[in-house]
Amino acid sequence: MTLTPELLRAVRADQAVVLVVAEFGFTVLPKTAVDEHLVVPLAELAVDEVAIGDEQRRHRLPAPGVETVVVDGPSWAQAWWIPRAELRQLTVAEAPVSVWATSSGRYLRRHPSRVDAVGHGRWSVLEQRAAAELLYAAESAHVVDDGSRLVAAVHAARAVATTVTAPVDGDAAGEEEAFAALATLTELLNQTVTADLRRQRAGIAARVADRHDGDLAVVTQALGVRRPLSQWTLKDLLKGRSR
User: Fold this and answer.
1) Record's superkingdom (predicted)?
2) Nearest to 69 by CA among 85, 54, 81, 78
3) How far is CA 238 from CA 129, 191, 242, in A?
4) Residue 43 pLDDT more than 60?
5) Above 70 in pLDDT, residue 12?
6) Residues linked to residue 123 through DSSP beta bridges, in sequence order
7) Cβ 68 vs Cβ 81: under 8 Å
8) What number is the average pLDDT over the span 61-86?
9) What is the signed CA dihedral for 8, 12, 13, 15, rounded to 10 degrees?
10) Average of per-residue pLDDT across 119-126
């Protein structure tokens, strides 16, 4: 669909229809059929702002014939589009929650809506931790094993949580043993395993810092692409590495 000044003026003039963010771009629908979060605030939208940016915030239109999805932002100006072919599905189609990844390391969630029947949906950004939580909560059969480190981490976390077999109800000795084993596992995770994981993170951070001559701002930016990272956290990791 091409957004022209004439179309925008027509939509503004007719309050019975609205311009909405759709799964494959933009469309005009009857106002009564649209979820409010899909509506573009046209009163705030100037004609020269119609072409929102791509994932890298470059204000350009997709090539003709390229199937795209539009990702929500806090405002229309912060929304962006991405070719659907560049998305990797992390949950199967029948899963209750739809989680996807971009090739650059962002994670997205596709939300169901009341207008799904005519092919529209809403997409929003997930932080990596939120994506991992959704994958962890999903049934194992619903998670796509794409070979990524994130999915490997989710599988590992789920395996740890199910390591200790639950005792049969009424098995007093089994209950005591399971409780003690879970307490021991918790202690190992909180102390030894966490320390080992921290050392692994510190080792990677140190290598990246060496590659960038110790410029912490650059290192923070490089390591924070897939998950937010503060310079305080980075300094703490590198300090631990030096000991």
Assistant:
1) Bacteria
2) 81
3) 22, 19, 6
4) no
5) no
6) 71, 110
7) yes
8) 80
9) 130
10) 77
- Tokens 């005519």, located at residue: 118
Domain count, the chain: 3
The answer as to whether 59 is a domain residue is no
Radius of gyration of the chain (CA): 23
- Contact yes or no for 24/119 (Cβ under 8 A): yes
Give the SS3 label for residue 166. Answer: coil
pLDDT at res. 93: 92
User: What is the reported pLDDT for 69?
Assistant: 82
The answer to whether the CB of 69 falls within 8 A of the CB of 81 is yes
- 54 inside domain: no
Residue 120 lies in domain: 65-143
Is the per-residue pLDDT at 94 higher than 90?
A: yes
**d(C-alpha 123, C-alpha 82), whole Å:** 11
Convert the pLDDT of each residue in 162-171 to its tens digit: 999 999 999 9
Residue that is last in its domain, among 106, 127, 143: 143
CA distance 119 to 127: 26
